[in-house]
Automatic annotation (TrEMBL):
This is DUF7123 domain-containing protein. InterPro entries: DUF7123. Pfam families: DUF7123 (PF23438). Residues 12-83 form the DUF7123 domain. It comes from Halorubrum miltondacostae.
Length: 84
């Protein structure tokens, strides 16, 4: 099954858009290796803009049940703290 299809299934079940599901999947996949994520770096990895990431994070935060996502800092862009 393709990742695009998995994103669509996850989005539908959690009430997320496909873009929000991609962001959530990205955070889940990388949370074990890193704790802090800058919006612009998430955007670079997902071929989005930092503004798109920021605009979708509130829905991602609400849908994330297996990870905790907290807005952490604002210097040179928003940073998110993600813990499992």
């Amino acid at each position: 099954m393709s990742t695009a299809h998995l994103d669509a299934v996850a989005a539908e079940s959690a009430g997320l858009s496909a873009k929000q599901a991609r962001i959530l999947r990205y955070l889940r996949e990388n949370a074990a290796d890193r704790t802090y994520f800058k919006s612009r770096l998430i955007a670079d990895d997902l071929d989005l803009s930092a503004k798109e990431v920021g605009a979708n994070m509130s829905a991602v935060v609400d849908a994330a049940t297996d990870i905790d996502v907290e807005k952490w800092g604002y210097s040179s862009g928003t940073t998110w703290m993600v813990t499992t």
